[in-house]
Amino acid sequence: MNPYHDDAVDWVVEGTGMRVAYDDFTTIDWIHDFAQERQRTRKLHRQPGVAGQIAVIYDWVQGWIVVLAVGIAAGIVAGGSDIASQWLGDIKEGYCDTAFYLNRNFCCWGLDETDTCTEWVPWNSATFVVGYIFYIMFALMFATTAAYLVKTFAPYAEGSGIPEVKTILGGFVIRHYLGLETLVIKTVTLVLSTAAGLSLGKEGPLLHISCCIGNILPRIFPKFKKNEAKMREILSAAASAGISVAFGAPIGGVVFSLEEMSYYFSSDTMWQSFFCAMAAAVALKLMDPFRTEKLVVFQVSYDRDWHGFEMFFYMLLGILGGLWGAFFIRMNLRLAAFRKTSWLRIFPIYEVFAVCLLTAVVGYLNIFTRVQSPELLANLFRECDGGAGNYHGLCDEGGVTLRVFSLLTASGVKGVLTILTFGLAIPAGIFMPSMVIGALFGRALGMIVQAWQTNHPGFWIFASCLPDVPCVTPGSYAMVGAAAFMGGVTRMTVSLVIIMFELTGALTYVLPIMIVVMTSKWVGDAFGKEGIFDGIILLCGYPFLGDKEEYKLNTMASQVMTPVEDLVVVTATGNTLDSLDNLLHETHYKGYPVVNSLRDMMLVGYISRTELRYAIDEARRRNLPGSTPAGNVVPILENTPAFIEFRLWMDQTPITVSHRFPMDQVIVIFRKLGVRYVLCTQHGQLLGLITKKDVLKHLASIEHPGEQESS
C-alpha cells in the first residue's frame, strides 16, 4: 500500500477518502471537507501540555483575525472608491479653481445650499455646448477605459458578481474569479464605470470585491487554504461586509448573506459575519469619505409619521415595483441572449462605448439623470423642511406638473438605460439603478398626493391630517418606491427591509416597507421569473432552487429512479494499472462506482476521476509496471511483488438511496448535504447513480419538454 500521504490510516478509517485539488468548474465535496476539518481538529487536540493548549487557542483566533482583516480592508476599499468616483464624476461637470483634486462638495465646503460657490467652475459657464461636450468626452473616456481593462486583464471583473459569488458559496469552483487580478481590476474599473454616469450601481461589485479580499487573506492560514468548505465560511462573512459598506447597513449585510447568498450558515459563521460587517462599517466610518459622518451619502432620517390613507399609495408602488422587476428581468434575459448570438459578443468594448454615448447624450439634458445616483437618491429621500431639501425645485409649491413630468421622464429614461447597461463588459450592479428608478417614481407620486391634499384638505381620505401641519412627505414615497422597485428586481425580502430601516433610521416606516416589499415580490413572482441573481445559479448547481422548481419536483413524488444499463464501474479486484489507465482514456465520466464484482454488483464505494488519475500518475512516477495489480482489496498471493490499493482515494461511505426513493427527496439530499452524487441501490446492489447535472437536465426537460432531445 503506497498512500503517498502521512495520514493515510486516518483517512481510511474516516471512510470518505482523500481528495486532490478540485478541478475548475466542479463542485466541492462538503462531506469530505467537513471530515477533513474534523480530522484536523481531532489531531490538534491530541497535542499534550501547554503547547497543545496554545495551539488550540491560536487555531481558534485565526478565524477572527481573518474576518477582522477582511472587514477593515473592505471598508478601506469602499471608502477609497467613494472618494475617487465622486471626484471623477464631478470632473465631468466642472473643476475646483482653488484645488483641482477636490470634488464639488469639498470645494464648496462650509457654504449653504442656497449660496453661490465661486470656487467651483462648471464647464458650461461659457456656453451650454461646451459643458455638454466635456460631459460626453469624460464619460466616454472613463467607460471605454474600464471596458478595455476588464476585457484585457480580468474578464471575471465584469458584471455584478453576486450570482457567481452565490454559486461559489453553494460549492461551485470557479478558479481566479476571486483572485488578485480580479480584485485590482474590478476596484479600478468600478470607480471609472460609476464616474462615467452609466445607469449602474457599485453595491453588487463591492460585494464581489469584498469576497475577493476574503478569498486572498485567509490563505495565509493552512486550515483555510486547504479546505474549501472552511473558506466558504469566510466568504459568507466577506459578503456581509460588502453589503455593510455598500449600504451602510451592517445588520442588513449579515441578513443578506444568510438569506440570499450562503448555502452553509452555521452559528459560528453568523457571529463571524456579524463581526466582519461591523469591522467594515467601523473602518468606513473612520474614513468618513463624505465628511458627513454618514456611511453612505443617501442616509436620511424622517421626523414625520405616515398616515393610514398612504398605505394605498405605498401598495401601488409595490405593485408597480413588482411589474417593473418582471419586465426588467424578461428584457434583460432577451438582451443577454441577443448578445451571445450577435456582433456584440465580438466587440464588447464598442457596445460599452455606444451605451455610454447614449447615456451621456440623453442624460445631460435632464438634471435628474445627469447627477450621480447617490447624490440623487439623497435628495429624493429628503424631507422639505424650510429651505433645506429643495433640490432643483422639488420643494417649490408651484409648478408641480412640470416637476412631476421631469421626474417621470427621468424614471423612464433610467429604466431603458438600465436594461441596456446591465450585462455590459464592465462592473455593474443593479441595486442602485433599481432604487433610483423607484425613488424617482415614488417622489413623483408623493408630490401628486401632496398637491392633492394641499388643494383639497377636506377630502374624506385626508381626515387624519392636522391643519397647518405638513401631512404628506414626498421623500418617504421616494424611499418606499426605492424599496419596491429594488425588491421587484432582486426579490429580496427580510434583508431589504432591514437595509432600508438602517438607511432611514425610522422605525415607524418599517411596516410600510414590509408590506411594499412583500407586494412587489408577490407581483413579480406572479408575472415574471425568479430574481435577477438566480438566473445563473441553475447553470452551475442548485443549492438555491426556487419555490417553482420545488413545486415541480413535489408533483413527481410518485416517480422512481430507474436502473441504467450502461453503467461504467470499477471492480474491487481484477484490475491492473494499465486497465485503469485505459478506462480513464476510453470514458470521460467524473467518477466511477466501485463494486465487488460485475457478477453481483454489490456496492463498495465511489472513486472520482481526479483521485483515480492522481493515484495512477503517482504509481507511474514510482516506475511501477503497467501489469501491477490494483484494487480495493489486497490479494493474498505470496508471489505478488507490488499492489496498488486505491481505498485511500475512494469514498467508502457514499450517500445511497433505494431505487424507489421519490425524486423530491433526492433534491432535498442534494440541497441539504451538498453532495455531488447519489448512488441508487437495492439491497446493497448497485443499480445506478444520479449527479447534479442529471437533476438539472431533468428540470430542463420539465421546463422545456420539446427541447429534451436536442439538449
TrEMBL record:
One Gene Ontology molecular-function label: voltage-gated chloride channel activity
Main localization of the protein described in the UniProt heading: membrane
Membrane topology: Multi-pass membrane protein
SMART domains: CBS
Annotated InterPro entries: CBS_dom, CBS_dom_sf, Cl-channel_core, ClC
Keywords: CBS domain, Chloride, Ion transport, Membrane, Transmembrane, Transmembrane helix, Transport
A single Gene Ontology CC term: plasma membrane
TM region positions: 50-78, 129-150, 234-258, 308-329, 349-367, 416-441, 494-517
Residue ranges occupied by any CBS domain in the UniProt entry: 561-622, 650-706
Pfam families xref list: CBS (PF00571), Voltage_CLC (PF00654)
Keyword Transport among record annotations: yes
Keyword Membrane appears in the UniProt entry: yes
Intracellular or extracellular location(s): Membrane
PANTHER family, sorted: CHLORIDE CHANNEL PROTEIN (PTHR45711:SF6)
Recorded family membership: Belongs to the chloride channel (TC 2.A.49) family.
This protein's name: Chloride channel protein
